[in-house]
Amino acid sequence: MSHQQDISRLLQGHSFIELSARERAHSLLDPGSSRELAGPFERLYSPWLGTQGIVAQADDGVVICKGLLDGQPAVIAAIEGGFQGGSLGEVGGAKLACALELAAADNRQGIPTRAVILFETGGVRLQEANLGLAAIAEIHAAIADLSRYQPVIGIIAGTVGCFGGMSIAAGMCSYLIVTREARLGLNGPQVIEQEAGVAEYDSRDRPFIWSLTGGEQRHACGLADALLEDDSTLIRQQLLHFIASGLPATPRHRRSQHYLQRLLAMDSSVQADAASARQLFQSGAKP
């Protein structure tokens, strides 16, 4: 039994959240098929962090693995939430965007490569500012391109969640898988508190935060397609199910009018809570 097969066997039925980004990617691909691209031995350090007194990481916090999913070609991009809060800069963002672009190029050449993005990210890396923003824009464009051919599946497990420009990337995925521990939002709790005040959004009130942006709530509001327990085997099974389902008839990012109608119906003079948010998003015609 190979080393990768042994890892996959040991991880079956275990927590997905407790795994590193690299372990998550390997656990999802078919045993023995995973190989890492632009890995840490390539020494792709961010050229900007060191000058600001920040220790860089050799893979810049993004792991790209290519292999097979149920015998079919696939690429997995996993963001390491433990490095700089999963923030994306020039190098990590370029790795992720290029992986998606190459998958789209595969499909144009008749190779049906799927893509999976494992989101654990606060969004753009502030230390790299516009370079990070440009990289995230390239990721958005690459998702839109690839999703014309094959499903792009996002997974938000925990503990960082998915915020900032990468929350838009999550919304563009063909399917989105979340756990109860996951969080999804355009702005993080501390940012909202800073701009609107603690009375509006207390970043220390964890039950309140999860009640609005947690995985269970986002799934109930139709912003995620599957809510799962923190189990590596269950997550892989759901991933394979979505791949087998093919492209959705109407992807979420094509349902803008439905969501705009919901937001226009919102009474912003009243403090939002979990119940009112669910009622808002579950009302009206189905998208």
From TrEMBL:
The keyword Transferase applies. It holds the Pfam family Carboxyl_trans. One of its GO terms (biological process) is malonyl-CoA biosynthetic process. It comes from Aquitalea magnusonii. InterPro entries: AcCoA_carboxyl_beta, ClpP/crotonase-like_dom_sf, COA_CT_N, Malonate_beta. NCBIfam families: malonate_beta, PRK07189.1. The chain crosses the membrane at residues 152-178. Coiled coil: none annotated. This is Malonate decarboxylase beta subunit. It comes from the Bacteria. Gene3D superfamilies: 2-enoyl-CoA Hydratase, Chain A, domain 1. Keywords: Membrane, Transferase, Transmembrane, Transmembrane helix. Residues 1-197 form the CoA carboxyltransferase N-terminal domain. GO terms for molecular function: acetyl-CoA carboxylase activity; carboxy-lyase activity; transferase activity.
